[in-house]
Write a structure and sequence with these properties.
Strand content: 15-25%
Number of domains: 1
Largest sheet: 3 strands, parallel
Number of strands: 5
Distance between the termini: 23 Å
CATH architecture: Orthogonal Bundle
Structural class: alpha/beta
Strand order of the largest sheet: 2-1-5
CATH superfamily: Winged helix-like DNA-binding domain superfamily/Winged helix DNA-binding domain
Number of helices: 5
CATH topology: Arc Repressor Mutant, subunit A
Radius of gyration: 16 Å
Low-confidence stretches: none
Shape: elongated
CATH class: Mainly Alpha
């Protein structure tokens, strides 16, 4: 199981931190969060009970497509696509192209939150 550190900062502080890194003024430590959210609410939306359960299904069943994942979970493929895109943007899942299909692969299974 891969673990990842998640941090919560205001949008302004995330931006200032990112710019300092880009300018070479700040080098993040390996122990610092890799994913940043602007609020507990936004974190809770992405890592809701339903979405954590979805990650578990993906990890355990390794679906070959979003369509097969939709069949396994009873969720609509369009809803899954939006959710998976958000999770992919945060680095929680990877969307791999295999032939004419896209299959989700879980990249992170444990979360440590620094607030």
């Amino acid at each position: 199981m891969k673990s990842i550190m998640i941090g919560i900062l205001s949008q302004e502080r995330i931006r200032a931190r990112t710019l300092a890194i880009a300018r070479g003024e700040y080098k993040p430590k390996p122990t610092e969060p890799k994913i940043w959210f602007t609020s507990m609410r936004s974190l809770a939306e992405v890592l809701s009970d339903e979405n954590r359960a979805l990650l578990k299904v993906i990890q355990e069943s390794q679906p070959q497509s979003i369509t097969s994942l939709a069949e396994m979970t009873g969720r609509k493929a369009s809803n899954l696509s939006r959710t998976l895109k958000t999770m992919s943007n945060y680095g929680l899942v990877e969307m791999r192209r295999d032939k004419n299909q896209v299959r989700p692969v879980v990249k992170v299974t444990e979360f440590k939150i620094l607030a």
